[in-house]
């Protein structure tokens, strides 16, 4: 959240829970809406999702490490996803869904290290969630991140999107993303009151404004990639 505003207690608890988990699992990366909210400061997030590159191979070991630590309670455990609670905060640990590692950065939260994706990586993560989950919050986070980094950096971040997220069908993930941004229709839009949603920044309270920005970003990204070409991930 904005450094100029008073921190919200539940927001601080979410970040503290994330830092506690990373103390136990130092290779975990905080992702999802919480990472987007840290960067864009556009809304509150009430849970902390993490990814590991090798959870499917050490699921039982990770579960065991967390269950012996005081304060952690397992809510759901279904390989390769763990959902736990710590001091009232839901915290997820999942398998990274792509082969290439995430680009990350480290923040300091009350003297503890907190690893999150870079801005460009957070944008890509929210982009793939637009494709796979198609929830209102994914569009909100995507447009907030794109607004934060600007059109050029957004286009540059998405150039290697097909390489990061190859589709089994062989279709272009980037073209699918552009199609959904050009005509955004999240599955839960009718159940989401934006003006009351998680301290959302006022500029995104009107879905028509969010939709217009999605459509503009679809065009801007298409034009950027056409001009500069796609790129391979390093």
The CATH class of the largest domain is identified as: Alpha Beta
Number of strands: 7
The SSE string, one letter per element, is: HEHEHEEEEEHHHHH
What is the spatial order of strands in the main beta sheet? 1-2-5-4-3
- Can you tell me the CATH architecture of the largest domain? 2-Layer Sandwich
> Which percent range describes the beta-strand content?
15-25%
Shape summary: globular
The N- to C-terminal Cα distance equals: 32 Å
Number of discrete helical segments:
8
Mean pLDDT: 92
Work out the helicity level.
Answer: 40-55%
CATH topology of the largest domain: Beta Polymerase, domain 2
> Unreliable runs, pLDDT <50, ≥5 residues?
1-6
Q: How many domains make up the 3D coordinates?
A: 2
Computed over alpha carbons, the radius of gyration is 18 Å
Give the CATH superfamily of the largest domain: Beta Polymerase, domain 2
Structural class by secondary-structure content: alpha+beta
């Amino acid at each position: 959240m904005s450094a100029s505003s008073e921190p919200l207690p539940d927001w601080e608890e979410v970040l503290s829970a994330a830092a506690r988990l990373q103390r136990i699992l130092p290779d975990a990366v905080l992702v999802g809406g919480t990472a987007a909210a840290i960067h864009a400061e556009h809304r509150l997030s009430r849970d902390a999702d993490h990814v590991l590159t090798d959870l499917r191979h050490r699921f039982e070991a990770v579960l065991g490490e967390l269950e012996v630590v005081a304060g952690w309670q397992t809510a759901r455990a279904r390989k390769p996803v763990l959902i736990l609670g710590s001091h009232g905060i839901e915290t997820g640990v999942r398998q990274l869904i792509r082969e290439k590692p995430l680009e990350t950065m480290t923040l300091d939260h009350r003297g503890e290290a907190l690893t999150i994706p870079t801005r460009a990586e957070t944008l890509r993560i929210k982009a793939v969630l637009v494709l796979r989950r198609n929830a209102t919050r994914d569009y909100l986070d995507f447009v907030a991140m794109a607004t934060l980094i600007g059109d050029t950096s957004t286009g540059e971040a998405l150039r290697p999107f097909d390489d990061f997220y190859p589709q089994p069908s062989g279709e272009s993930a980037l073209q699918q993303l552009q199609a959904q941004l050009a005509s955004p229709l999240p599955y839960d839009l009718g159940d989401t009151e934006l003006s009351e949603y998680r301290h959302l920044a006022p500029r995104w309270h009107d879905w028509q404004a969010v939709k217009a920005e999605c459509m503009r970003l679809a065009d801007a990204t298409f034009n950027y990639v056409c001009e500069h070409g796609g790129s391979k991930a390093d």
